[in-house]
Amino acid sequence: MVTISPRLDVDRLTRAFDGAPVVDNVSFRIEAGQVACLLGPSGCGKSTTLRIIAGVDVQDSGRILVDGQLICDARTHVPPEQRAIGLMFQDFALFPHLPVRENVAFGLAGGFRANRERVAELLDRVRMTAHIDSYPHELSGGEQQRVALARALAPRPRVLLMDEPFSGLDERLRDGIRDETLALLKEEGTAVLLVTHEPHEAMRMADQILLMRDGRIVQQGAPYNLYNAPVDRQAAAFFSDINVLTGRVRGALTETPFGEFLTPGLPDGAPVEIVIRPQHLKIDFDRAGQGPSPTSENGTAARAKVSRARYLGRESLVEFVTDHGGIALNATVPGVFLPPAGTAMWLMLRRDRVFVFPG
User: Fold this and answer.
1) Which of 36, 18, 40 is nearest to 28 (CA)?
2) Interhelix angle for 141-153 vs 116-125, to 10°?
């Protein structure tokens, strides 16, 4: 049986500066044609990981393979230009003194004259044929990004590393250019590692997300899995706003304004965090004043009063304070929903959409 190696195999990578670990035992694999997003807050070790893979920094331990071939470990260090790894950065790094055709052909042996067909093919695919003789300063940000992408793909790299490549673009253009870029990368069959701190970008582009924190990958998998099964409260909060209820275990149960939650496996007195996304809070008017709390298969409703409501465009954000415990909770409602401050309402939640974590 033939075993096919992953296009990029990062195995137990570590890197420390002044004794402080910046990349801590990082491992992941990316297949050909797959897009992986290394996602995390600034300073978590994303860019250092990228630099080590590119070969411009050296790990303290661990190894990296491309198509099963070792490119670096404790004894081996293949130079960056021999790794078949392309790079694309947020500032595009186009050469201002060269026209578009020469920028795209820069990394190719023989330059533009020897690679006219490859340059023409890529410029056609990024819709920049009309600008083949233009200089970078004559292009918009989105056009420069397309040229940078064509240049990165021109040598047919096995792996393409992208460091915040869309952050310099106007927000109105960003989604469209991301989608165009993703389509081209898929066509080329290149394995892509995209570094970003934007969850929306990772969810939109990635086949798998590598969620990084304090130098470690704390969770990895398909976007759907990371969003719907976060490993902890911080992971849940990275992808959306959250509400957090706190409590303590009593007999494998934790009491909240929404009734009791099962918290098995935790000792009595252990702190618990119950996480609810705002879109999973359901609202009903308290038409009977202080009437009995409505109940359903999802548990007991919590009575609360509106403190503020705002319309955000596609949805409304309604802020509440619960009668029991004075807990602040936020709910989002599609469309326009702006109840006045002080309006009494019942809040209900979907228990299958609630995350329960040790405190």
Assistant:
1) 36
2) 140
> What is the per-residue pLDDT for 295?
55
Stretches where the chain sits below pLDDT 50 are: 292
Distance CA 68, CA 89 (A): 26
When the pLDDT of each residue in the chain is averaged and rounded to a whole number, the result is 91
Q: Are 11 and 62 in contact (CB under 8 A)?
A: yes
Model pTM? 0.88
Please compute Rg for the chain using Cα positions. 25
Helices (H), ranges, the chain? 46-54, 100-104, 111-114, 116-125, 141-153, 171-188, 199-205, 223-228, 233-239
In the three-class reduction of DSSP (H, G, I as helix; E, B as strand; rest coil), residue 209 is classed as strand
Q: Which domains does the chain have, with CATH numbers?
A: 8-237 (3.40.50.300), 241-358 (2.40.50.140)
Give the pLDDT of residue 90: 74
Report pLDDT for 294.
56
Q: Which amino acid is at 308?
A: R
